[in-house]
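Problem 12. The chain below contains 91 residues. Write out its predicted structure in token notation.
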Amino acid sequence: MSECWARYCVTIAKHVIENGLHSAAVTEAGYYAYNEKNDEAQKLHVRGGGREYSGSYYINEFGRAATNMPFGGTKYHDMLYQPDFNDFDLR
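Solution.
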């Protein structure tokens, strides 16, 4: 999983450098879109599904799993394989 994340970050950095830019920040829309996907996927996960916060290791006060990783390896790879630069404020 960490290899997927590393590739994603390097791809963004490469895009910034090759295009003479100076920064890439996630847009508010991109942030909320990811969190909506995360929340929907979490509902299908054995530890998720609308339970009240219990203070447990698994569910935080926002109703999310502590790891925020409800996606399987293949789905996670597909999500991170090519960044969607529309989700970034590139300057």
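Discussion. The chain is about 45% helix and 5% strand. Students who got a different answer should revisit the alignment rule from Section 12.3.
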